[in-house]
Amino acid sequence: MSVSEEWAKENNLWIPMSEIFNIGLPGPSGNENDTYIHDNFIYKVNNLLNTLSITKFLDRVIYHNEIFPETYYYFVGFTGFEGSSIMPVIRQDFIKDAHPASNVQIETYMCALGFKKEAEGRYINQRYRVWDLVPRNVLADIEGDIFVVDAEIELI
């Protein structure tokens, strides 16, 4: 059993994989996240494929919350197959009545936050590099508000 699994169980933050469907109905999934939707929330179970470690993943969650507080991630706990794998579970507010943002909307939004465009979907400021900001990861609601729901982020 990993230290993370042991800690999660000791702190009542372990969701057995056999019970993961209890957190919500399966939603769209990607390379690194399986999603589950319940009421006004979307839960993401991250397989750590892109970050490779829990600490790097949690750092990325902190960076996301600093840059994009409107889509704040809440740590829910861990799931996995006991003794062999562990995956963090996080929650965001579910953005209803939204559609993929255009590249122009994304660029305008990121520039308003003080980022400079490096390449399509890739931005930088004095503290962070943010990428994978493409329409499937950035939503716009009917009022034109922008919501970054998934991004790759690193500290410079």
What would you call the quaternary organization? single chain
Order of helices and strands: HEEEEHEEEHEEEEEE
By helix and strand content, what is the structural category? alpha+beta
Strand order, biggest sheet?
1-5-6-4-3-2
pLDDT under 50 segments (min length 5)? none
CA radius of gyration: 16 Å
* Strand composition percent: 35-45%
> What is the count of β-strands?
13
Tally the helices: what do you get? 3
User: Quick check: average pLDDT?
Assistant: 94
The profile of the biggest β sheet is:
6 strands, mixed
Helix content: 10-25%
Net shape: globular
End-to-end C-alpha gap: 34 Å
Could you write a compact summary of the structure shown?
This protein is an alpha+beta fold.
List the helices and strands and how they pair.
Layout (H helix, E strand, L loop, with lengths): L2 H8 L3 E3 L8 E2 L6 E6 L2 E6 L7 H14 L6 E7 L6 E7 L4 E3 L2 H10 L3 E4 L2 E3 L3 E4 L6 E4 L4 E3 L3 E4 L1
Parallel strand pairs: 1-5
Antiparallel strand pairs: 2-3, 3-4, 4-6, 5-6, 7-11, 8-9, 9-10, 10-13, 11-12
Write up what this structure looks like.
The chain is α+β, with helices and mostly antiparallel strands. 21% of the residues lie in helices and 36% in strands. The chain contains 3 helices and 13 strands; from the N terminus they run αββββαβββαββββββ. Strands 1-5-6-4-3-2 form a 6-stranded mixed sheet. It has a 4-stranded antiparallel sheet with strand order 8-9-10-13, covered by helices on one side. Strand 11 (138-141) and strand 12 (146-148) form a beta hairpin. The longest helix has 14 residues, at 54-67. It starts with a helix and ends with a strand.
